[in-house]
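Every protein is a chain of amino acids, and every chain bends into a shape of its own. The protein below has been through that process, and both of its lines are reproduced in full.
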Amino acid sequence: MNDSKPGVAVPQRTIPFPSSISDAARAALERLVGVDGIALNAGFVMPSPDDHEAWRLLKMQVDDQYAAAVKALGGQGVSAIETLDGNGATIHLATPQALAQEGRAYIDFHGGALVFGGGEACRAGAQLQADQHGVKCYGVDYRTPPEHPFPAALDDAVSAYRYVLERHRPEDIVIGGRSAGGNLAAAMLLRAREEGLPFPAGLILLSPQVDLTESGDSFEINRLVDLVLPVRLTSSNLLYAASANLSQPHLSPLFGDLSGFPPTFLQSGSRDLFLSNTVRMHRALRRAGVAAELHVFEAMPHGGFGGTAPEDLELQEEINRFVRLRWTGK
């Protein structure tokens, strides 16, 4: 007889917007639900992994939306931007008008479910990071499926890292990635160690997509509660992986050997679908002896409150502090 319980039964209820967050954050959440209280993004349905034509059409639509959102967040960027070939990888190099940190470099891996967010959004993101940190930012416009499934994006990430290492000392480099970009940033370091490349000064993982098997608790607890990312990304994960095993470390770096990783900054929110990814990655890094700090923001969904709420600005200040610490020690 099997006495195991299937889980915890929760009665149907409406989860209120908390009074414990800023008015701007609360307003951001309110904009993301319909009159029925259901997440507007829950109506977004991804194609099946084998419907490549549908994915191509969807990419064109979503990439335009990503570009508009990043440009709106960054405002009128001032850093100069150029696109170059970095050992075979497409890189958008953003250079501030006045370098605050000569010789330093930030490598940015954009988000987008390992499918979206390239092109103009990646360019705008690189400019945003360069303006923010006052250093050269290398935005890696990695190849994506359905045209270029795994390991194309990871190959691009390693090629771009080699390119930056040819121009900057490893102790002058910080690498950052949001969501899917966090996956590539961490997986790239696993590959870098295998190929004998030195590690950078620091790593920033913002709600990282480090477990493509989606085995964490928050994939159930925060399902439909995360108003930005209300449902799993199973279809896009399978599209990206092609026939590869989702649990292998190059696809899900949470399951890799993280020993020797650089000091790492991790961020999530209590309503983030990827909360489990982030807290599990933090514990895995700590078990591996890595100096890792975890920042979980109250009621924050995946990706934050839109970029302008006090909580978003507080997060940005924490990131700035971490980057300064990695470069200057204070």
